[in-house]
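User: Please run a holo structure prediction.
Assistant: Happy to. Please share the sequence and the ligand.
User: Here you go; the ligand is adenosine monophosphate.
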Amino acid sequence: MIFYNTLTKRKETFEPIQKGKVGMYACGPTVYDYIHIGNLRAYVFSDTVRRALEHEGYEVRLIRNITDVGHMTDDDIAQGDTGEDKMEKKARAEHKSPAEIAAFYEDYFHGAETDMNLLPAHFYPRATAHVAHMIRMIETLIESGHAYEKNGNVFFDVTSFAEYGRLSGNTLEQLKVGARLEEHPDKRNPWDFALWLKAPKEHTMHWPSPWGEGYPGWHIECSAMSLEYLGDSFDIHTGGEDNIFPHHEAEIAQSECATGKPFVRYWLHNRHLLVDGEKMSKSKGNFYTLEDIVEKGYSPTDLRMLFLSAHYRSQMNFTWDGLAQAKKNRETLASLADRLEDAGASTGPDIAAEPREKFLAAMEDDLNTPLALSILLEFSTAANTALDRKDAFDARSAIAFLKEAFGLFGLKREKESAPPEVRKLAALRESARLDKDFTAADELRDRILAAGWTVEDTAQGPKLKKK
Ligand code: AMP
Ligand code: ZN
Protein backbone atom coordinates (compact mmCIF):
# COMPACT_ATOMS: atom_id res chain seq x y z
CA MET A 1 0.00 0.00 0.00
CA ILE A 2 1.35 3.43 -0.90
CA PHE A 3 0.19 6.63 0.83
CA TYR A 4 1.08 10.27 0.40
CA ASN A 5 2.42 11.41 3.75
CA THR A 6 1.82 15.09 4.58
CA LEU A 7 4.75 14.91 7.01
CA THR A 8 7.37 13.92 4.43
CA LYS A 9 5.51 15.38 1.43
CA ARG A 10 5.96 12.30 -0.66
CA LYS A 11 4.39 8.96 -1.44
CA GLU A 12 5.65 6.19 0.82
CA THR A 13 5.18 2.46 1.05
CA PHE A 14 3.14 1.74 4.14
CA GLU A 15 5.02 -0.18 6.85
CA PRO A 16 3.16 -0.71 10.11
CA ILE A 17 4.90 -0.38 13.48
CA GLN A 18 3.60 -3.80 14.50
CA LYS A 19 3.48 -6.52 11.86
CA GLY A 20 -0.01 -7.07 10.49
CA LYS A 21 -1.64 -4.38 12.65
CA VAL A 22 -2.58 -0.77 12.08
CA GLY A 23 -3.40 1.85 14.70
CA MET A 24 -5.38 4.67 13.16
CA TYR A 25 -6.91 7.88 14.54
CA ALA A 26 -9.39 10.02 12.63
CA CYS A 27 -10.37 13.45 13.95
CA GLY A 28 -14.08 13.24 14.56
CA PRO A 29 -16.91 15.74 14.64
CA THR A 30 -17.38 18.71 16.91
CA VAL A 31 -20.90 17.91 17.98
CA TYR A 32 -22.55 21.33 17.99
CA ASP A 33 -24.37 21.08 14.66
CA TYR A 34 -25.45 18.65 11.95
CA ILE A 35 -22.44 17.28 10.14
CA HIS A 36 -22.43 18.31 6.50
CA ILE A 37 -21.40 16.44 3.38
CA GLY A 38 -17.94 18.09 3.50
CA ASN A 39 -17.38 16.36 6.84
CA LEU A 40 -18.69 13.19 5.23
CA ARG A 41 -15.99 13.44 2.59
CA ALA A 42 -13.43 13.32 5.42
CA TYR A 43 -15.10 10.32 7.07
CA VAL A 44 -15.57 8.42 3.81
CA PHE A 45 -11.89 9.03 3.14
CA SER A 46 -10.73 7.55 6.46
CA ASP A 47 -13.18 4.67 5.97
CA THR A 48 -11.69 3.98 2.53
CA VAL A 49 -8.16 3.97 3.99
CA ARG A 50 -9.32 1.44 6.54
CA ARG A 51 -11.13 -0.75 3.99
CA ALA A 52 -8.05 -0.77 1.74
CA LEU A 53 -5.81 -1.81 4.64
CA GLU A 54 -8.22 -4.51 5.78
CA HIS A 55 -8.39 -5.77 2.20
CA GLU A 56 -4.58 -6.14 2.35
CA GLY A 57 -5.02 -8.32 5.42
CA TYR A 58 -4.16 -5.83 8.17
CA GLU A 59 -6.02 -5.81 11.44
CA VAL A 60 -7.00 -2.16 11.83
CA ARG A 61 -7.92 -0.44 15.09
CA LEU A 62 -9.70 2.81 14.29
CA ILE A 63 -10.38 5.51 16.88
CA ARG A 64 -12.70 8.33 15.90
CA ASN A 65 -13.15 10.92 18.64
CA ILE A 66 -16.11 13.08 19.55
CA THR A 67 -15.19 16.69 20.28
CA ASP A 68 -17.68 17.90 22.86
CA VAL A 69 -15.68 20.73 24.43
CA GLY A 70 -12.77 23.05 23.65
CA HIS A 71 -13.23 23.69 19.91
CA MET A 72 -13.26 27.47 19.64
CA THR A 73 -15.03 29.52 17.00
CA ASP A 74 -11.75 31.19 16.02
CA ASP A 75 -9.34 28.29 16.19
CA ASP A 76 -7.86 28.88 12.78
CA ILE A 77 -6.70 32.35 13.55
CA ALA A 78 -6.25 32.39 17.25
CA GLN A 79 -5.03 28.93 18.21
CA GLY A 80 -7.79 28.26 20.65
CA ASP A 81 -7.34 31.09 23.10
CA THR A 82 -9.86 33.63 21.94
CA GLY A 83 -13.34 33.27 20.54
CA GLU A 84 -16.02 31.17 22.13
CA ASP A 85 -16.38 27.49 22.72
CA LYS A 86 -18.64 26.20 19.91
CA MET A 87 -20.54 23.88 22.27
CA GLU A 88 -21.15 26.62 24.86
CA LYS A 89 -22.31 29.05 22.21
CA LYS A 90 -24.81 26.60 20.70
CA ALA A 91 -26.08 25.51 24.15
CA ARG A 92 -26.78 29.11 25.07
CA ALA A 93 -28.52 29.80 21.77
CA GLU A 94 -30.79 26.75 22.14
CA HIS A 95 -31.31 27.10 25.91
CA LYS A 96 -29.97 23.60 26.48
CA SER A 97 -27.02 22.16 28.35
CA PRO A 98 -23.85 21.46 26.34
CA ALA A 99 -24.35 17.75 27.21
CA GLU A 100 -27.81 17.77 25.60
CA ILE A 101 -26.45 19.49 22.50
CA ALA A 102 -23.58 16.97 22.29
CA ALA A 103 -25.85 13.94 22.74
CA PHE A 104 -28.23 15.10 20.02
CA TYR A 105 -25.59 15.84 17.36
CA GLU A 106 -23.52 12.79 18.26
CA ASP A 107 -26.58 10.60 17.65
CA TYR A 108 -27.14 12.34 14.35
CA PHE A 109 -23.50 11.72 13.42
CA HIS A 110 -23.78 7.98 14.11
CA GLY A 111 -26.94 7.82 12.00
CA ALA A 112 -25.11 9.46 9.10
CA GLU A 113 -22.23 6.99 9.55
CA THR A 114 -24.68 4.10 9.16
CA ASP A 115 -26.37 5.70 6.13
CA MET A 116 -23.00 6.24 4.46
CA ASN A 117 -21.97 2.64 5.20
CA LEU A 118 -18.98 3.77 7.25
CA LEU A 119 -17.57 0.86 9.23
CA PRO A 120 -17.99 1.72 12.91
CA ALA A 121 -14.81 2.82 14.67
CA HIS A 122 -13.55 0.53 17.41
CA PHE A 123 -14.03 3.29 19.93
CA TYR A 124 -15.49 6.80 19.98
CA PRO A 125 -13.82 8.57 22.91
CA ARG A 126 -15.50 11.78 24.05
CA ALA A 127 -13.26 14.68 25.04
CA THR A 128 -15.29 15.43 28.19
CA ALA A 129 -14.63 11.90 29.47
CA HIS A 130 -10.86 12.34 29.15
CA VAL A 131 -10.18 15.60 30.96
CA ALA A 132 -8.13 13.82 33.64
CA HIS A 133 -5.84 12.40 30.92
CA MET A 134 -5.42 15.87 29.45
CA ILE A 135 -4.59 17.40 32.83
CA ARG A 136 -1.92 14.74 33.42
CA MET A 137 -0.41 15.40 30.03
CA ILE A 138 -0.38 19.17 30.60
CA GLU A 139 1.34 18.64 33.96
CA THR A 140 4.05 16.59 32.23
CA LEU A 141 4.53 19.35 29.65
CA ILE A 142 4.84 22.01 32.37
CA GLU A 143 7.33 19.88 34.33
CA SER A 144 9.53 19.40 31.27
CA GLY A 145 9.51 23.10 30.41
CA HIS A 146 7.37 22.82 27.25
CA ALA A 147 4.37 24.61 28.75
CA TYR A 148 3.72 27.42 31.23
CA GLU A 149 0.82 28.72 33.26
CA LYS A 150 -0.29 32.30 33.68
CA ASN A 151 -3.50 33.56 35.29
CA GLY A 152 -5.15 30.15 35.11
CA ASN A 153 -4.34 29.67 31.40
CA VAL A 154 -1.73 27.18 30.25
CA PHE A 155 0.10 27.56 26.94
CA PHE A 156 2.44 25.37 24.96
CA ASP A 157 5.75 27.10 24.27
CA VAL A 158 6.28 26.54 20.54
CA THR A 159 9.93 27.65 20.74
CA SER A 160 10.62 24.62 22.96
CA PHE A 161 10.04 22.17 20.10
CA ALA A 162 12.56 22.39 17.28
CA GLU A 163 10.39 20.34 14.91
CA TYR A 164 7.46 22.75 15.14
CA GLY A 165 6.23 23.51 11.62
CA ARG A 166 7.47 20.30 10.01
CA LEU A 167 3.99 19.05 9.13
CA SER A 168 2.44 22.26 7.85
CA GLY A 169 5.50 24.17 6.70
CA ASN A 170 4.58 26.86 9.23
CA THR A 171 7.95 27.02 10.95
CA LEU A 172 8.46 29.84 13.42
CA GLU A 173 10.53 31.78 10.86
CA GLN A 174 7.72 31.45 8.34
CA LEU A 175 5.12 32.46 10.90
CA LYS A 176 7.11 35.53 11.93
CA VAL A 177 6.91 37.02 8.46
CA GLY A 178 3.33 35.86 7.94
CA ALA A 179 0.03 36.78 9.53
CA ARG A 180 0.05 38.78 12.73
CA LEU A 181 -1.83 37.37 15.64
CA GLU A 182 -3.73 39.25 18.22
CA GLU A 183 -1.37 39.22 21.19
CA HIS A 184 -2.69 37.47 24.26
CA PRO A 185 -1.41 39.18 27.43
CA ASP A 186 -0.55 35.83 29.07
CA LYS A 187 1.44 34.41 26.16
CA ARG A 188 5.22 34.44 25.80
CA ASN A 189 5.16 34.05 22.01
CA PRO A 190 2.26 34.91 19.73
CA TRP A 191 2.20 31.38 18.25
CA ASP A 192 2.04 29.57 21.58
CA PHE A 193 -1.25 27.71 21.79
CA ALA A 194 -3.64 27.06 24.64
CA LEU A 195 -3.60 23.73 26.49
CA TRP A 196 -5.94 24.82 29.25
CA LEU A 197 -8.19 27.84 29.49
CA LYS A 198 -9.55 29.54 32.53
CA ALA A 199 -13.34 29.26 32.46
CA PRO A 200 -15.16 32.58 32.33
CA LYS A 201 -17.90 32.91 34.96
CA GLU A 202 -20.75 32.22 32.54
CA HIS A 203 -19.10 29.05 31.20
CA THR A 204 -21.09 25.95 32.12
CA MET A 205 -18.36 23.50 31.09
CA HIS A 206 -15.50 23.62 33.56
CA TRP A 207 -13.37 21.20 35.53
CA PRO A 208 -11.13 21.63 38.56
CA SER A 209 -7.43 21.57 37.72
CA PRO A 210 -4.10 22.48 39.35
CA TRP A 211 -4.52 25.86 37.59
CA GLY A 212 -8.07 26.56 38.75
CA GLU A 213 -11.48 25.92 37.15
CA GLY A 214 -11.14 25.69 33.42
CA TYR A 215 -11.47 23.58 30.32
CA PRO A 216 -9.08 21.95 27.86
CA GLY A 217 -7.93 23.29 24.49
CA TRP A 218 -9.03 21.39 21.39
CA HIS A 219 -5.56 20.21 20.37
CA ILE A 220 -4.66 18.52 23.66
CA GLU A 221 -7.86 16.47 23.46
CA CYS A 222 -6.83 14.58 20.34
CA SER A 223 -3.31 14.00 21.72
CA ALA A 224 -4.61 12.63 25.01
CA MET A 225 -7.26 10.40 23.41
CA SER A 226 -5.06 9.01 20.65
CA LEU A 227 -2.18 8.19 23.02
CA GLU A 228 -4.63 6.57 25.44
CA TYR A 229 -6.15 4.22 22.87
CA LEU A 230 -3.30 3.68 20.41
CA GLY A 231 -0.12 4.03 22.44
CA ASP A 232 2.72 6.60 22.31
CA SER A 233 3.49 5.89 18.65
CA PHE A 234 0.95 4.75 16.09
CA ASP A 235 0.61 4.36 12.35
CA ILE A 236 -1.95 6.65 10.74
CA HIS A 237 -3.68 9.92 11.60
CA THR A 238 -6.25 11.37 9.23
CA GLY A 239 -8.27 14.56 8.93
CA GLY A 240 -9.33 17.22 6.47
CA GLU A 241 -6.72 19.67 5.16
CA ASP A 242 -7.92 22.38 7.56
CA ASN A 243 -6.73 20.16 10.42
CA ILE A 244 -3.06 20.31 9.30
CA PHE A 245 -2.49 23.65 10.96
CA PRO A 246 -2.77 24.44 13.77
CA HIS A 247 -4.53 21.28 15.02
CA HIS A 248 -2.23 18.48 13.87
CA GLU A 249 0.94 20.56 14.12
CA ALA A 250 0.00 21.18 17.77
CA GLU A 251 -0.83 17.50 18.34
CA ILE A 252 2.66 16.49 17.20
CA ALA A 253 4.35 19.09 19.41
CA GLN A 254 2.40 18.18 22.56
CA SER A 255 2.58 14.43 22.08
CA GLU A 256 6.27 14.19 21.23
CA CYS A 257 7.25 16.56 24.02
CA ALA A 258 5.14 14.61 26.53
CA THR A 259 6.29 11.09 25.58
CA GLY A 260 9.73 11.73 24.08
CA LYS A 261 8.76 9.35 21.27
CA PRO A 262 7.77 9.81 17.63
CA PHE A 263 3.98 10.30 17.53
CA VAL A 264 2.50 9.30 14.15
CA ARG A 265 4.15 7.72 11.13
CA TYR A 266 1.74 8.60 8.33
CA TRP A 267 -0.33 11.78 8.24
CA LEU A 268 -3.07 11.60 5.61
CA HIS A 269 -5.28 14.55 4.75
CA ASN A 270 -8.23 14.87 2.42
CA ARG A 271 -8.74 18.15 0.62
CA HIS A 272 -11.97 20.01 0.98
CA LEU A 273 -15.33 19.61 -0.56
CA LEU A 274 -16.25 23.01 -1.99
CA VAL A 275 -19.52 24.57 -2.87
CA ASP A 276 -19.42 27.34 -5.47
CA GLY A 277 -15.63 27.32 -5.16
CA GLU A 278 -15.65 27.89 -1.37
CA LYS A 279 -15.02 25.46 1.47
CA MET A 280 -18.28 23.93 2.64
CA SER A 281 -18.41 24.70 6.34
CA LYS A 282 -20.73 24.95 9.29
CA SER A 283 -19.48 28.39 10.22
CA LYS A 284 -20.11 29.79 6.72
CA GLY A 285 -23.56 28.18 6.63
CA ASN A 286 -23.04 27.15 2.97
CA PHE A 287 -23.53 23.47 3.57
CA TYR A 288 -25.70 20.55 2.55
CA THR A 289 -26.58 17.70 4.84
CA LEU A 290 -27.43 14.14 3.95
CA GLU A 291 -31.13 15.04 4.23
CA ASP A 292 -30.75 17.62 1.43
CA ILE A 293 -29.26 14.88 -0.74
CA VAL A 294 -32.01 12.36 0.03
CA GLU A 295 -34.76 14.97 -0.43
CA LYS A 296 -33.62 15.45 -4.03
CA GLY A 297 -33.96 11.74 -4.75
CA TYR A 298 -30.38 10.63 -4.25
CA SER A 299 -29.14 7.99 -1.85
CA PRO A 300 -26.17 8.15 0.54
CA THR A 301 -24.54 5.55 -1.73
CA ASP A 302 -24.80 8.00 -4.65
CA LEU A 303 -22.94 10.54 -2.53
CA ARG A 304 -20.28 7.99 -1.69
CA MET A 305 -19.95 7.23 -5.40
CA LEU A 306 -19.51 10.96 -6.05
CA PHE A 307 -16.69 11.21 -3.50
CA LEU A 308 -14.93 8.22 -5.10
CA SER A 309 -14.94 9.94 -8.48
CA ALA A 310 -12.31 12.46 -7.29
CA HIS A 311 -8.97 11.73 -5.67
CA TYR A 312 -8.99 12.53 -1.97
CA ARG A 313 -6.03 14.84 -2.46
CA SER A 314 -7.84 17.05 -4.93
CA GLN A 315 -10.46 19.56 -4.04
CA MET A 316 -13.90 18.63 -5.19
CA ASN A 317 -16.59 21.07 -6.14
CA PHE A 318 -20.00 19.74 -5.19
CA THR A 319 -22.58 19.98 -7.99
CA TRP A 320 -25.98 18.34 -8.47
CA ASP A 321 -24.93 17.34 -11.99
CA GLY A 322 -21.95 15.52 -10.53
CA LEU A 323 -24.26 13.73 -8.12
CA ALA A 324 -26.63 12.77 -10.96
CA GLN A 325 -23.69 11.21 -12.83
CA ALA A 326 -22.63 9.37 -9.68
CA LYS A 327 -26.14 7.96 -9.33
CA LYS A 328 -26.02 6.76 -12.95
CA ASN A 329 -22.69 5.07 -12.33
CA ARG A 330 -24.04 3.40 -9.23
CA GLU A 331 -27.08 2.13 -11.16
CA THR A 332 -24.88 0.86 -13.98
CA LEU A 333 -22.86 -1.24 -11.57
CA ALA A 334 -25.93 -2.45 -9.67
CA SER A 335 -27.69 -3.53 -12.85
CA LEU A 336 -24.58 -5.38 -14.01
CA ALA A 337 -24.51 -7.21 -10.67
CA ASP A 338 -28.19 -8.19 -11.20
CA ARG A 339 -27.56 -9.38 -14.74
CA LEU A 340 -24.54 -11.42 -13.72
CA GLU A 341 -26.45 -13.05 -10.90
CA ASP A 342 -29.30 -13.91 -13.26
CA ALA A 343 -26.84 -15.33 -15.77
CA GLY A 344 -25.76 -17.90 -13.17
CA ALA A 345 -22.53 -19.85 -13.19
CA SER A 346 -21.57 -19.78 -16.83
CA THR A 347 -18.03 -20.84 -17.58
CA GLY A 348 -15.45 -19.55 -20.02
CA PRO A 349 -12.60 -17.04 -20.05
CA ASP A 350 -12.07 -14.91 -16.93
CA ILE A 351 -12.82 -11.40 -18.23
CA ALA A 352 -12.45 -9.94 -14.72
CA ALA A 353 -8.86 -11.01 -14.08
CA GLU A 354 -7.09 -8.13 -15.80
CA PRO A 355 -9.47 -5.32 -14.72
CA ARG A 356 -9.28 -6.64 -11.16
CA GLU A 357 -5.51 -6.47 -11.14
CA LYS A 358 -5.58 -2.91 -12.49
CA PHE A 359 -8.32 -1.91 -10.06
CA LEU A 360 -6.38 -3.17 -7.04
CA ALA A 361 -3.16 -1.54 -8.28
CA ALA A 362 -4.99 1.81 -8.52
CA MET A 363 -6.31 1.44 -4.97
CA GLU A 364 -2.87 0.51 -3.64
CA ASP A 365 -1.39 3.61 -5.24
CA ASP A 366 -2.50 6.18 -2.65
CA LEU A 367 -6.18 5.26 -3.11
CA ASN A 368 -6.56 6.34 -6.70
CA THR A 369 -10.33 5.89 -6.57
CA PRO A 370 -11.12 7.87 -9.77
CA LEU A 371 -8.86 5.54 -11.76
CA ALA A 372 -10.23 2.46 -9.98
CA LEU A 373 -13.78 3.63 -10.72
CA SER A 374 -13.08 4.18 -14.42
CA ILE A 375 -11.58 0.67 -14.63
CA LEU A 376 -14.70 -0.71 -13.00
CA LEU A 377 -17.01 1.16 -15.39
CA GLU A 378 -15.01 -0.04 -18.40
CA PHE A 379 -15.30 -3.56 -17.08
CA SER A 380 -19.02 -3.07 -16.74
CA THR A 381 -19.34 -2.06 -20.40
CA ALA A 382 -17.31 -5.10 -21.48
CA ALA A 383 -19.31 -7.50 -19.30
CA ASN A 384 -22.64 -6.09 -20.49
CA THR A 385 -21.55 -6.51 -24.11
CA ALA A 386 -20.52 -10.11 -23.41
CA LEU A 387 -23.92 -10.73 -21.80
CA ASP A 388 -25.78 -9.13 -24.75
CA ARG A 389 -23.86 -11.27 -27.20
CA LYS A 390 -24.34 -14.33 -25.00
CA ASP A 391 -20.56 -14.87 -25.02
CA ALA A 392 -19.36 -17.59 -22.71
CA PHE A 393 -17.35 -16.21 -19.79
CA ASP A 394 -16.73 -16.92 -16.14
CA ALA A 395 -19.69 -15.12 -14.54
CA ARG A 396 -18.74 -16.22 -11.04
CA SER A 397 -15.36 -14.50 -11.23
CA ALA A 398 -17.01 -11.37 -12.64
CA ILE A 399 -19.46 -11.28 -9.72
CA ALA A 400 -16.66 -11.88 -7.22
CA PHE A 401 -14.74 -8.90 -8.66
CA LEU A 402 -17.80 -6.65 -8.43
CA LYS A 403 -18.38 -7.70 -4.81
CA GLU A 404 -14.74 -7.06 -3.94
CA ALA A 405 -14.85 -3.62 -5.57
CA PHE A 406 -18.12 -2.75 -3.78
CA GLY A 407 -16.50 -3.80 -0.50
CA LEU A 408 -13.42 -1.65 -1.05
CA PHE A 409 -15.49 1.31 -2.16
CA GLY A 410 -17.95 0.79 0.71
CA LEU A 411 -20.92 0.75 -1.65
CA LYS A 412 -24.13 -0.85 -0.48
CA ARG A 413 -26.11 -2.87 -3.03
CA GLU A 414 -29.28 -0.87 -2.82
CA LYS A 415 -32.14 -3.23 -3.22
CA GLU A 416 -34.42 -1.15 -5.34
CA SER A 417 -33.90 -3.96 -7.81
CA ALA A 418 -35.70 -7.12 -6.75
CA PRO A 419 -33.79 -10.01 -5.21
CA PRO A 420 -32.91 -12.94 -7.52
CA GLU A 421 -35.67 -15.25 -6.21
CA VAL A 422 -38.32 -12.61 -7.02
CA ARG A 423 -36.81 -11.98 -10.44
CA LYS A 424 -36.96 -15.74 -11.07
CA LEU A 425 -40.66 -15.83 -10.15
CA ALA A 426 -41.28 -12.91 -12.53
CA ALA A 427 -39.50 -14.78 -15.34
CA LEU A 428 -41.56 -17.92 -14.69
CA ARG A 429 -44.76 -15.87 -14.66
CA GLU A 430 -43.80 -14.25 -17.96
CA SER A 431 -43.27 -17.60 -19.63
CA ALA A 432 -46.57 -18.92 -18.16
CA ARG A 433 -48.30 -15.84 -19.57
CA LEU A 434 -46.74 -16.40 -23.00
CA ASP A 435 -47.93 -20.03 -22.82
CA LYS A 436 -51.38 -18.62 -21.95
CA ASP A 437 -51.35 -20.59 -18.67
CA PHE A 438 -53.09 -17.78 -16.80
CA THR A 439 -53.83 -19.82 -13.69
CA ALA A 440 -50.12 -20.47 -13.20
CA ALA A 441 -49.32 -16.84 -14.08
CA ASP A 442 -51.79 -15.54 -11.43
CA GLU A 443 -50.47 -17.90 -8.84
CA LEU A 444 -46.93 -16.67 -9.53
CA ARG A 445 -48.10 -13.07 -9.29
CA ASP A 446 -49.46 -13.82 -5.79
CA ARG A 447 -46.14 -15.32 -4.76
CA ILE A 448 -44.35 -12.20 -6.01
CA LEU A 449 -46.81 -10.06 -4.02
CA ALA A 450 -46.23 -12.16 -0.92
CA ALA A 451 -42.49 -11.45 -1.30
CA GLY A 452 -43.24 -7.70 -1.17
CA TRP A 453 -43.12 -6.87 -4.90
CA THR A 454 -45.61 -6.02 -7.60
CA VAL A 455 -45.23 -6.83 -11.25
CA GLU A 456 -46.35 -4.49 -14.01
CA ASP A 457 -46.54 -5.55 -17.64
CA THR A 458 -45.05 -2.81 -19.80
CA ALA A 459 -44.16 -2.51 -23.49
CA GLN A 460 -40.56 -3.32 -22.48
CA GLY A 461 -41.68 -6.44 -20.63
CA PRO A 462 -42.58 -7.03 -16.98
CA LYS A 463 -41.24 -4.53 -14.41
CA LEU A 464 -40.88 -5.30 -10.72
CA LYS A 465 -41.66 -2.62 -8.15
CA LYS A 466 -41.38 -2.66 -4.38
CA LYS A 467 -44.87 -2.74 -2.74
P1 AMP B 1 -15.16 19.51 12.45
O1 AMP B 1 -16.43 18.95 12.99
O2 AMP B 1 -15.26 20.91 11.95
O3 AMP B 1 -14.02 19.33 13.45
O4 AMP B 1 -14.77 18.65 11.15
C1 AMP B 1 -14.72 17.25 11.13
C2 AMP B 1 -13.84 16.75 9.99
O5 AMP B 1 -14.35 17.17 8.71
C3 AMP B 1 -12.41 17.28 10.05
O6 AMP B 1 -11.52 16.23 9.70
C4 AMP B 1 -12.38 18.37 9.00
O7 AMP B 1 -11.09 18.58 8.49
C5 AMP B 1 -13.32 17.80 7.94
N1 AMP B 1 -13.92 18.82 7.06
C6 AMP B 1 -14.56 19.95 7.45
N2 AMP B 1 -15.03 20.63 6.36
C7 AMP B 1 -14.70 19.90 5.27
C8 AMP B 1 -14.93 20.06 3.85
N3 AMP B 1 -15.59 21.10 3.35
N4 AMP B 1 -14.44 19.11 3.03
C9 AMP B 1 -13.78 18.03 3.52
N5 AMP B 1 -13.53 17.83 4.83
C10 AMP B 1 -13.99 18.74 5.72
ZN1 ZN C 1 -8.34 16.11 16.19
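The mean pLDDT is 92.
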